[in-house]
Design goal:
Distance between the termini: 28 Å
Number of helices: 5
Radius of gyration: 17 Å
Order of helices and strands: HHEEHHH
Number of strands: 2
Strand order of the largest sheet: 1-2
Structural class: mainly alpha
Helix content: 55-70%
Length: 101
């Protein structure tokens, strides 16, 4: 996946994401490579260590989500996630960036 695609999917500015991936690269969890279609782009790839860390984190994340749902109520959790997805799907990020410039 390219940095631009990941930034769009996370609804994060590309330069912010670029700074945030530096420690992951330094720790050997991801590799940054030239894009396969466009050599000017940068693609991210999980390393073996990154895959192992992801698997461990995914188990902890699943348990945290289960605990949150138990404390917050399943319906409220579902409603909140739907609302957050709707916010992320808007052009709000572009609007905020244009106001800041």
């Amino acid at each position: 996946m390219t940095i631009n695609a990941l930034a769009a999917g996370l609804v994060v500015d590309r330069t912010t994401l670029g700074r945030n991936i530096l420690p992951l690269e330094r720790d050997g969890l991801i590799a940054v490579e030239k894009g396969s279609r466009d050599r000017r782009s940068k693609a991210l790839r999980l390393t073996e260590a990154g895959v192992a860390r992801f698997r461990t984190a995914a188990k902890a994340w699943t348990e945290a989500q289960r605990q949150f749902e138990a404390a917050f109520c399943a319906k409220r959790t579902t409603d909140m996630r739907a609302l957050l997805h709707a916010v992320a799907a808007t052009d709000l990020g572009a609007t905020v960036r244009s106001v800041e410039e």
